[in-house]
Design brief:
Layout: E1 9-13, H1 18-29, E2 34-39, H2 42-56, E3 60-64, H3 70-84, E4 89-92, H4 104-126, E5 135-142, H5 153-169, H6 172-178, E6 180-187, H7 205-209, H8 211-215, H9 223-236, E7 242-245, E8 252-253, H10 255-270
Parallel strand pairs: 1-2, 1-4, 2-3, 4-5, 5-6, 6-7
Antiparallel strand pairs: 7-8
Helix pairs in contact: 1-9, 3-4, 4-5
Pfam families: adh_short
Organism: Danaus plexippus plexippus
GO molecular function: oxidoreductase activity, acting on the CH-OH group of donors, NAD or NADP as acceptor
Length: 274
């Protein structure tokens, strides 16, 4: 399949920094109609909007939004609908990587709860069986959903939850009803602020003190590589599919591997049922 991004209305969370910011740039180059950037970083978001308005016109609008505040999140959706009339693409990109006692609840709220709320709102708006136009929701998971490690167990848990939620709600038989593709991206270590020492945290002091050494074991990919992979998946990804972007390599459809893994786990369940 090849999904045409030209003239589409896009909503993205966490679009003022890192991968999200580069995705916005690439989508503007694809000649989308409009991008709503929902982010908490006010100064950066406003500056970003002003920068791109000079080159692309009024195609990018910043909405200051804490995605964990449901009223703000759903209010931003309603504002976009009021202005544009519809939404075609939603990219749930907001996320943090901090398992400290002070931040782990926020991590769960941003990485999974807010993503779920946003996905369900997008589905409500887009689904064809309830009068919508169809569309695509792309949710950001991580290689953390594909491996097991004691480094960041809460973070790994949130990203595993994103993978399972997105795969299940995107299954072909459900997509046949809704006309809304739900696709999952698993990024490897990417050169963003998330991996800077002051952004990382852990409830375990020994792990916390050695986190940067552990992070260095993973080859970093550029933000450009990650963002271009995401745009490609928006165009190509089937509903319920999972894609891997890692180490500046071409993006890879890993859906067969994910299905095989869950198939093995499922055998343990169904073999016990008479």
């Amino acid at each position: 399949m090849s999904y045409e991004l030209q003239d589409k209305v896009v909503l993205i969370t966490g679009g003022s920094h890192g991968i999200g910011a580069k995705v916005i740039e690439f989508l503007l180059e694809e000649n989308v109609k409009y991008i709503a950037n929902l982010d908490i970083a006010k100064d950066v978001g406003i500056s970003q909007e002003a920068k791109y308005s000079q080159k692309y016109g009024n195609k990018l609008k910043f909405y200051q939004c804490d995605v964990t505040n449901e009223e703000q999140l759903l209010g931003a959706y309603d504002s976009v609908l009021k202005e544009q009339g519809y939404i075609d693409v939603v990219i749930n990109s907001a996320g943090i990587m901090n398992d400290s006692k002070e931040k782990y609840r926020k991590e769960i709220e941003i990485n999974f709860t807010a993503l779920t709320t946003s996905t369900l709102k997008a589905l409500e708006i887009m689904r064809k069986d309830e009068g919508g136009r169809g569309g695509v929701v792309l949710n950001i998971s991580s290689i953390a959903a594909l491996i097991q490690d004691e480094l960041l167990p809460v973070y790994y848990g949130t990203k595993s939850a994103v993978l399972q939620f997105s795969n299940c709600i995107g299954m072909p038989r459900y997509y046949a009803r809704t006309g809304v593709r739900i696709v999952t991206m698993c990024f490897g270590a990417t050169d963003t602020a998330l991996l800077h020492k002051d952004m990382l945290g852990n409830f375990d002091k020994e792990i916390h003190d050695n986190m940067m050494e552990a992070v260095k074991q993973h080859p970093l990919q550029t933000v450009e590589s990650a963002a271009s992979s995401l745009v490609e998946v928006l165009k190509r990804g089937e509903s319920g599919s999972t894609w891997l972007s890692i180490a500046n390599k071409p993006v890879k459809d890993i859906t067969p591997h994910v299905k095989k893994a869950y198939g093995i786990l499922s055998e343990l369940v169904f073999e016990t049922i008479p």
